[in-house]
Design a protein that fits this description.
Elements lengths: L28 H22 L5 H11 L4 H29 L2 H20 L7 H29 L5 H22 L11 H6 L2 H10 L7 H6 L4 H12 L5 H16 L5 H6 L1 H19 L2 H14 L4 H29 L1 H25 L4 H20 L4 H9 L2 H33 L5 H17 L8 H7 L3
Length: 481
């Protein structure tokens, strides 16, 4: 899918880096405030992923009244243009985080999100389908930016021993935002011809709150020390975040990590494709990202109300059932936290892909047997929920994590950038093609995704090494043999 809880690993040592000697640190009010302000960007991402689902009929009515093109095709463009914006937002964030600082980059992005929300919210009043498309594109840039900037900031201010836990807050924020968008889209709230512009325009809320909160949050000490080269300000910020002046070990460790990074050979994107020892893990990482998107998850996230109607539910019941999709992702984000290091990345990825394959087959069977059979309609919804649950087990987060664990510091930044671009492009493809595929294939619409899931499962089984409890040196050595 779209979730990037570990994209911050691009900028830190990653989960396999050497043990740190930093001060123990702990949870403080300043830390919780800063994290809360940052993850509003991830909540925004989840909200705008889930919110477009329920109001499809009303948006198509609006398109039909103001545009001559086929409404379902224009709706596909409205959905998928979000991912095009994401493809721009990710690299833009990488540049601005280093040139403007973490905090200022997040501030600029929050202001930009307000503009995108305004375009969507006022599109009906202006009777402009173009405004709606532009708004989705702008909010896509905002969300793509957030999926890089928010995890980076959170990882850099969290104590080392708590980085994993705080990293999952990004994932939880995505699930919570998605659920909020789906709840607000039901008929009795904003799921109507009159309510949908306000529904989409509510994206202004997390952006505005973030804009208000961020000026009072500290800048990342890592940025101040290693990019701005202002050790005094870094100490002040770190002291505020940790609630203690005992930050000497953490400052020293940042210096040592920076020195090690400078001594390591740097690799460009071109080097990843031309160097065999880098090309193999890059291909593995790309396939993991493709498995996240081309397994069909965004067909469910963007169009689950359409899928549930196809399975025999009324439009009102379908919009209620959609809420379960976001809720399951939120719950699975919690469940996957202890499993990640206990069972390992490879095991969870295989389990997730295998479960998605099984339930995509069962979903297809249910589509063929629901007519005059209320029981099968219910099972179709249950199978869809279980499909989403298995996605949450591994494929939702592991593709983002795995690239950071397959590459050393010198190649990690380029590799994660390639992975992000592939992920957003595949997101765009699924968003644009699902409705035409559904119209062409009917009840067979999930068969292509099932075939791809089988291919991804076999590839993962044959090629993906387990990275749990291995150093980066041990993992990269596998590809040099």
């Amino acid at each position: 899918m779209e979730i990037q809880p570990t994209s911050s690993l691009l900028r830190q040592g990653g989960p396999l880096s050497r043990p740190a000697k930093m001060s123990s640190g702990g949870t403080t009010g300043a830390l919780l405030y800063a994290v809360s302000a940052a993850v509003l960007g991830m909540l925004q991402f989840g909200f705008n992923t889930g919110v477009i689902n329920a109001p499809r009929k009303f948006i198509e009515n609006f398109v039909r009244d103001n545009y001559e093109a086929k409404p379902s095709l224009i709706f596909s463009v409205i959905v998928s243009i979000f991912a095009v914006g994401g493809m721009i937002g990710c690299p833009l964030a990488s540049w601005m985080l280093d040139t403007q600082g973490r905090k200022k980059a997040l501030l600029y992005n929050a202001a930009f999100g307000i503009i995108g929300a305004a375009f969507m919210g006022f599109s009906k009043l202006a009777t402009s389908v173009e405004m709606l498309i532009i708004g989705r594109f702008l909010i896509g840039i905002n969300c793509g930016f957030a999926t890089t900037a928010s995890p980076t900031y959170v990882s850099e201010i969290a104590p080392v021993r708590m980085r994993g836990a705080f990293g999952t807050v990004n994932q939880l924020a995505v699930g919570f935002g998605m659920t909020c968008g789906q709840i607000l889209g039901i008929d009795v709230i904003l799921g109507s011809d009159e309510g949908w512009p306000l529904l989409l325009g509510l994206a202004v809320v997390p952006a505005a709150i973030q804009l208000i909160m961020l000026p009072f949050a500290p800048e990342s000490p890592r940025y101040l020390l290693l990019c701005a080269h202002d050790e005094e300000k870094a100490r002040v910020a770190l002291t505020k975040i940790r609630g203690s002046s005992d930050v000497e070990n953490e400052i020293n460790d940042m210096h040592l990590e920076d020195q090690a990074a400078r001594e390591e050979q740097k690799f460009s994107v071109k080097d990843l494709f031309t160097t065999p020892a880098l090309r193999i893990p890059l291909v593995i990482g790309i396939v993991m990202h493709l498995s996240q998107q081309l397994g069909g998850i965004n067909a469910v996230l963007y169009y689950s109300s359409t899928i549930f109607v196809k399975a025999g539910l009324s439009e009102e019941d379908a919009r209620l059932a959609v809420i379960g999709v976001g809720s399951i992702l939120f719950v699975m984000a919690l469940v996957s936290i202890p499993l990640m290091d206990r069972l390992g990345r490879r095991t969870l990825q295989l389990c997730g892909l295998g479960g998605m394959t099984a339930f995509s087959i069962l979903m297809t069977i249910a589509f063929f047997t629901y007519e005059n059979n209320t029981t099968m309609s219910i099972f179709a919804v249950i199978f869809t929920f279980l499909y989403v649950a298995f996605f949450g087990v591994g494929p939702s987060s592991i593709p983002w994590m795995i690239l950071s664990e397959l590459f050393g510091q010198g190649a990690r930044s380029a590799a994660v950038s390639v992975g992000a671009l592939v992920n957003w492009f595949a997101n765009f493809v699924v968003g644009l093609t699902f409705i035409p595929m559904s119209e062409a294939l009917g009840n067979y619409v999930f068969i292509p995704y099932t075939i791809l899931l089988i291919i991804f499962f076999v590839f993962t089984y044959l090629k993906l090494p387990e990275t749990k409890n291995r150093t980066i040196e041990e993992v990269t050595a596998l590809f040099k043999k």
